[in-house]
Design brief:
By secondary structure, this protein is α+β, with helices and mostly antiparallel strands. The protein has four helices and seven strands; from the N terminus they run E-H-H-E-E-H-E-E-E-E-H. A seven-stranded antiparallel sheet has the order 1-7-6-5-4-3-2, covered by helices on one side. Helix 1 packs across helix 4. The longest helix is centred in the last third of the chain and has 29 residues. About 13% of the residues have low confidence.
């Protein structure tokens, strides 16, 4: 059994604007340049109508890895992430599949971008997080709509005895990356509105 990933981000704007900030090629390239680490690059990007598919690579230096991971894998780690998005009624649904070089396992997740439909913010976010009251781009400002970005997935590492510890570390790192991507997206929306 793997370690679960549950993440929710909130953004102000129209569905089209938020989708462009989350999955548009210009935004994906800028986010990767800001957050992709060593060897971060966009490997492919295709858009057909409102459907989008891209593959990117993140690099993680060996020095930033915990000892349990360094014992299993010598050198830097390369993370390959494939993302697909397609329209689904008044929302977008997607899938993320991730592999990590030298680690027997994977990360898979379902993603969605939908309107909250509530007309007001959900104040459950942590202070200063993109969806929390008083944060830049927080939902509920005049004339804005609240878009909810959800990621639900699982990290599976098939290594006897230490796999669970590695899964927990990877799930924590993925959640941190998703939070940083939310912050980037909030700033992108502010800069491009």
């Amino acid at each position: 059994m793997g370690s679960r990933i549950e993440h929710r981000g909130e953004f102000s704007g129209t569905l089209a604007d938020v989708f462009a900030a989350v999955a548009g090629e210009e935004a994906v390239r800028a986010r990767l340049a800001a957050l992709g680490g060593d060897d971060g690059k966009l490997l492919s990007y295709t858009s057909e109508g409102d459907a989008v598919r891209y593959e990117l690579q993140h690099g993680i230096p060996a020095a930033r890895l915990p000892s349990a991971v360094r014992a299993l894998h010598k050198g830097d780690i390369i993370v390959r992430r494939k993302q697909t998005w397609q329209p689904s009624g008044d929302s977008y649904k997607g899938r993320t599949d991730v592999t990590v070089s030298g680690v027997p396992g994977e990360i898979s997740a379902q993603t969605s971008l939908t309107s909250s439909g509530s007309g007001g913010p959900d104040h459950s976010g942590a202070p200063g997080s993109p969806g929390s009251p008083g944060s830049p781009g927080s939902p509920g400002s005049p004339g804005s709509e609240t878009m909810i970005f959800r990621t639900t997935g699982e990290v599976v590492v098939r290594i006897p005895l230490v796999g669970g510890r590695v899964e927990e570390f990877v799930a924590q790192q993925v959640t941190t990356l998703l939070q940083r991507e939310d912050e980037f997206t909030t700033q992108w929306l502010t800069d491009h509105s």
